[in-house]
UniProtKB/TrEMBL annotation, chain B:
Similarity section: Belongs to the RNase PH family.
Domain of life: Eukaryota
Organism in which the protein naturally occurs: Arachis hypogaea (Peanut)
Compartmental location: Nucleus, Nucleolus
Domain Exoribonuclease phosphorolytic: 13-149
Pfam families tied to this protein: RNase_PH
Protein name: Exosome complex exonuclease RRP46 homolog
Listed GO CC annotations: cytoplasmic exosome (RNase complex); nuclear exosome (RNase complex); nucleolus
Alphabetized UniProt keyword annotations: Exonuclease, Exosome, Hydrolase, Nuclease, Nucleus, RNA-binding, rRNA processing
GO biological process, one term: rRNA catabolic process
SUPFAM superfamilies associated with the record: Ribonuclease PH domain 2-like, Ribosomal protein S5 domain 2-like
InterPro entries: ExoRNase_PH_dom1, ExoRNase_PH_dom2_sf, PNPase/RNase_PH_dom_sf, Ribosomal_Su5_D2-typ_SF, RNase_PH
């Protein structure tokens, strides 16, 4: 506010950790001037990403994703329900994002984190905007029975770029999802076909065997921070708290812009900055697509 | 080829705008903003002493409460609160009143159908297209009414993209549902007569061309989005003129309400 630049005098005399805590913005700007970040990454590089499918054995589809330290676990449970009257031949997907207290010291038990409902809605909007899932595939008997997929994303470690990791884990779990085989019994109810051969012949299999969901173009996202003229890709929680302007761009594999989300922030985004961010996102989409395909092929081998 | 919109507007035409300020007497600042049938009331209380727990005490902080027209407060309302809070934080000069909280309460409301007889109590619930941009405009007008120091004004606009790539401004609810994609854009608006040199950014683009906030729905190509930005910028000048005209003080003897 009105303080003289105290940091200049003290920077040569202070320990690095103390400087980082007392003058965080100056600490980061010193690094940015050398085109590097405190964790050694260049400005345009995202953190190491790993995807593991089938992390939850009891769920119909699941994935565990780590981007740097940010960890997200998604599990999908399928239930049969009656479809609504307006769309009798469509199923339904309910996406929910949870931030349990384990993920961050800012989240307290009993008080839901502020970011949780926002990311939850963002996820549902992005997945429905991208049109990657055809809800008609989730239908069983038109007008009577359809699948309801409950997709729950749990944040296990919140270290920045939460939306990117959550979207990647949701999409990975959907690609791993296996719709169980069901049959309609005499009462007209849908029951799961059991693995062993104790089946009555009166049952007609509605869904003969387990099948995967076909995903059309898959959305991937990248979060960037805008600070003065710099664009920092894939921020950590510390970077997000210091430099507040965040832009999240979601592109799908066919190159369509699914979402460009910039919720305010002190720095304005000009066309040049947006185009740079889009170019960085395109690169990242290729990377993530490769990682997801590798994870899928590893699963199939097993 | 001229595309016909259901209500007969041209692609660049906005719905009728209406704005009034100081409508609530107890609030430090208040304003209503309506675009067609979407109407939003915003009230500002503050600055009040003290900041909330996780906020930075060195700066003025904002608290936004979004009240939906009907129903319980759900995820959509929380998302709108977050977007509105961050947008308003970026337009205010936060270093002037550190360690204070300013509350902004936004209520989506019913608009009275003027063709109904005045003594009837029937409220007609109409379309709600572009609710978030209306709320941002109303909140900005309410902040000016309350006398909170602002760096510049924020004007919000909704642009929708049709399947054939045509861009329509300010869609109503029906149009929003039919379109391939739409985006809410918020642009800063500076009073350019004050400092013409300062209004240019380094890269040669004037400050009024940057976006403060952008929220999109549906999939569109990157070029469509950039066209939306251009159209939005072009119309933001008109919107801000309207906003400035309506928030001018009505008389020179208006006294401060916070006192």
């Amino acid at each position: 506010m009105g303080f003289p630049d105290a940091s200049k005098d003290l920077s040569s005399e202070m320990e690095v950790d103390a400087f980082r805590r007392l003058f965080p913005l100056k600490y980061f700007e010193r690094h940015l001037a050398e085109a590097i970040r405190p964790d050694g990454r260049p400005l345009g590089k995202a953190r190491d990403t790993t995807v593991v499918l089938g992390a939850v054995a009891s769920a119909n589809g699941s994935a565990l994703v780590k981007i740097g330290s940010t960890t997200m676990l998604t599990a999908i449970k399928m239930e049969v329900m009656t479809p609504s009257l307006e769309s009798p031949d469509e199923g339904c997907i309910a996406i929910d994002f949870h931030m349990p207290p384990i993920c961050s010291p800012i989240v307290r038990p009993g008080r839901p984190a502020e970011a949780a409902p926002v990311i939850s809605k963002q996820l549902s909007d992005t997945i429905s905007s991208s049109g990657s899932i055809d809800l008609k595939e989730l239908s069983l008997v038109t007008g009577k029975a359809a699948w309801m997929a409950y997709l729950d994303v749990y944040c296990l470690d919140a270290d920045g770029a939460l939306f990117d990791a959550a979207l990647l884990s949701a999409v990975a779990a959907l690609s791993h999802l296996q719709i169980p085989a069901v049959a309609m019994n005499d009462d007209g109810k849908i029951v799961l076909l059991s693995e062993d051969d104790g089946q009555k012949k009166a049952q007609e299999p509605v869904n003969k065997e387990k099948r995967n969901l076909t995903l059309r173009s898959i959305p991937f996202s990248l979060t960037c921070i805008l600070h003065k003229n710099y664009i920092l890709v894939d921020p950590t929680a510390e970077e997000e708290s210091i430099m507040e302007t965040v832009v999240t761009i979601a592109l799908d594999t066919s190159g369509q812009l699914v979402s460009l989300y910039k919720p305010g922030g002190p720095v304005l985004a000009f066309t040049s900055a947006i185009q740079d961010c889009v170019a960085l996102t395109r690169q990242r989409v290729k990377e993530l697509k490769g990682i997801l395909e590798e994870a899928n092929s590893t699963m199939q081998v097993e | 080829m001229e595309i016909e919109r259901p209500d007969g507007r041209s692609p660049n035409q906005l719905r009728p705008l209406a704005c009034s300020r100081s409508i609530l007497h107890r609030a430090h600042g208040s304003a209503t903003w309506s675009q067609g049938d979407t109407k939003v009331v915003a009230a500002v209380y503050g600055p009040k002493a003290g900041t909330r727990k996780n906020e930075n005490p060195e700066k003025a902080s904002f608290e936004v409460v979004w009240k939906p027209k009907t129903g319980q407060i759900g995820k959509a309302e929380r998302e709108y609160e977050m977007i509105l809070k961050r947008t308003l934080e970026s337009i205010c000069i936060r270093s002037i009143y550190p360690n204070t909280t300013t509350s902004v309460i936004v209520q989506a409301c019913f608009s009275l159908n003027p063709s109904f007889p005045p003594f009837s109590f029937l409220l007609v619930v109409h379309d709600d297209g572009a609710l978030l941009p209306c709320a941002i405009n109303a909140a900005c007008a309410a902040l000016v009414d309350a006398g909170i120091p602002l760096r510049h004004l924020a004007v919000a606009i909704c642009c929708s993209v049709a399947d054939n790539g045509y861009i329509f401004l300010d869609p109503n609810k029906q149009e929003e549902e039919k379109m391939k994609a739409f985006s809410y854009l918020v642009f800063p608006n500076l009073n350019v007569s004050v400092l013409p040199e300062r209004s240019t950014q380094k890269g040669g683009e004037p400050t009024a061309h940057g976006i403060i906030t952008s929220v999109t729905h549906g999939a569109m190509s990157v070029d469509d989005y950039l066209h939306c930005l251009e159209r939005g910028r072009a119309v933001s000048a008109r919107l801000s003129e309207f906003l400035r005209k309506n928030i001018e003080p009505k008389s020179s003897s208006e006294s401060s309400k916070a006192g």
